[in-house]
Design brief:
mainly alpha
Length: about 170
Amino acid sequence: MLDQGHRTGYEIKRAVDRSTRFFWAASLAQVYPELAALEERGYVVSKDEPHGARPRKAYRLTDDGRSALLGWLQSNRVPDFEFRDEGLLRLFFADTLTLDEALELVRRMRSRAEEIDRDFREGILPLAQKSAGRFRLIAAREGADYYAWRAAWFRNLEAELAAELGNGATDRP
């Protein structure tokens, strides 16, 4: 994010929320310690830039930091993939619910998936389309495709469970 011109921890957090959050979220509680660690390693330098009475630091990438970034990008190591989804975890344990209750859970998840899909297409994707980075747009397109797929998947699951209920199914799913 520093390489893209974002200078303060707050600016970095805002940029994450509008770009990488769908696959790599960060909180301010993560951003500031990471900036301090990068500064300790010599990858970034900071300078005080108070904002009114509030203290504020602005950061910039050093040559060593840029080299480390390039080394990370060019590394042959295949990164691990971690997917965490509380909604899917709830669905995993939904066998303890009645079919009606499970259907209601799926309806809530479908509604949220459609909301995220809409917000992504109206918010994140247009920002990526305006950005100068080709690969930022490619990553955003993957996110848009994923969220559209997820919304459709929950619509299909909802229809499947509703059809079961329509056929008189009352047992636990």
